[in-house]
Amino acid sequence: MHTEVFSELFPLINTANPQTLEWLLSVAVEHEYPAGRAVLMEDAWGNAIYLIVSGWVKVRRTIGEDSLALAILGRGDFFGEMAILDESPRSTDVIALSAVKLLSISKEKFIHILFKDPQLHHRMLQLMVKRLRYANVRLQMRSSPPAIKLVQILVSLGESYGEPSDQGRKIFNIPFKDLADVTEIGVEETTKIMEKLNEKGWIKIDTANQVVYLVNFRQMINLAGKV
After folding, report:
1. What is the DSSP string of 176-223?
2. Does 106 share its domain with 172?
3. Sheet of 57-63: strands edge to edge?
4. Dihedral pair phi/psi, residue 36, rounded to 5°
C-alpha cells in the first residue's frame, strides 16, 4: 500500500507528516479474518491499535450468555485505542461481521509515534471527541420513535462507511439483531421497519450479496434529522 492510499483511507492518520506515514506502514502488520471470527476478546490486554482496511466488525459486550452489539465499524475506522491509552484490559469484544482485512500497530510503536508527531496526536484526540459526541446523539435518540432511530443509524453507517453505487449508497447487510442492539429497539420491530423501508423503496436489501443499498439517502438524512 502506498502512503497516499494509506493516508486517504484512514482519517486517523491523514494529517500525519510523510515520514510518520512511511514509518507506520513499515511497522504495520496485516491480518485477515473470516466472518464470525473474534478479532479481539474482552479482558485481553490492549497491545495494538487496529485499522480496518476492508470489511465490517461489531464491538460487543458479553453479559453472561448474552451479547450486546455496541457499535458497527467499517472500512477506514480503527479500534483498540482505549485499551492502549488507559493500559487496562479490554472491556468489549470485536467480532468480524464479514471477511475483514486489518492493519495492526503495536502499542509501543503507536505511542512512540504519537509523541513524535503532534499532528497525529491531535487528530486522534479529534476523532475520540467525535465518538463521544456521537454517543451523546445516541442518548438523545432514546426518546425518538423507533423508525427515526433506526434510520439515523443507517444514515450514520452510510455517511461513515458507505460506498457509492448506481443503486444508492451501499453498506453491509448487518444482522437485524445487531442493528436492534445498536439502535436499542427490539429485533422484531427492527425487522418490520427494515422490511417497510425496503417495500417503500428507501432501501434495497440484497441478501444474496449481503449488502443494503440506501436508495433514498437524501430523504433518510431528512428523517434522521428529526432526532
Report:
1. HHHHHHHHTS-HHHHHHHHHHHHHHTSEEEETTTTEEEETTHHHHHHH
2. no
3. 38-40, 93-96, 57-63, 66-73
4. 90, -10
Cell numbers of 75, please? Answer: 472500512
- Sign of the alpha-carbon torsion through 32, 82, 9, 202: positive
User: CA distances (Å), 195 to each of 103, 106, 135, 198, in order?
Assistant: 36, 43, 27, 5
- C-alpha 172/C-alpha 180 separation (Å) is 15
Q: Are 193 and 183 in contact (CB under 8 A)?
A: no
Domain end position, chosen among 86, 107, 139: 139
> Which grid coordinates are listed for 106?
503495536
The arithmetic mean of pLDDT across residues 72-79, rounded, is 95
**CA distance readout (Å), 143 to 21, 140, 146, 185, 220:** 43, 7, 9, 11, 19
pLDDT greater than 60 at residue 142: yes
One domain for residues 70 and 115? yes
- CATH code (residue 217): 1.10.10.10
Q: What is the pTM of this model?
A: 0.89
Burial label for 204, CB within 10 Å (0-12, 13-18, 19+), is middle
Give residue for cell 506515514. 21
